[in-house]
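Our consortium's second objective concerns turning raw sequence data into structural hypotheses that experimental partners can test. To show how far this objective has progressed, the report includes one record in full. It was chosen at random from the queue rather than selected for favorable results. The single chain below, 64 residues long, was entered without modification.
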Amino acid sequence: MGRGAARRDHPRRGAELSTSDIVAHLERRLARYKIPKSFITLDEIPRNASGKVRKDQLRQHYAH
């Protein structure tokens, strides 16, 4: 099992950002094998007191 990448996007107020929009954007810029097979939508990325991403919490909640 490989690792994934995370990214937090902030669409403009009132705009919708769908998975198909993200995939279409990535298909124009990346080779097909580099495009993630799944996406998870988060309201907020968990961070510790110093602002670093809490990868352990992400793995615990979203591991397949």
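The partners drew two points from this record. The mean pLDDT is 82. DSSP finds two helices and no strands in the chain. Both points have been shared with the crystallography group to help prioritize constructs.
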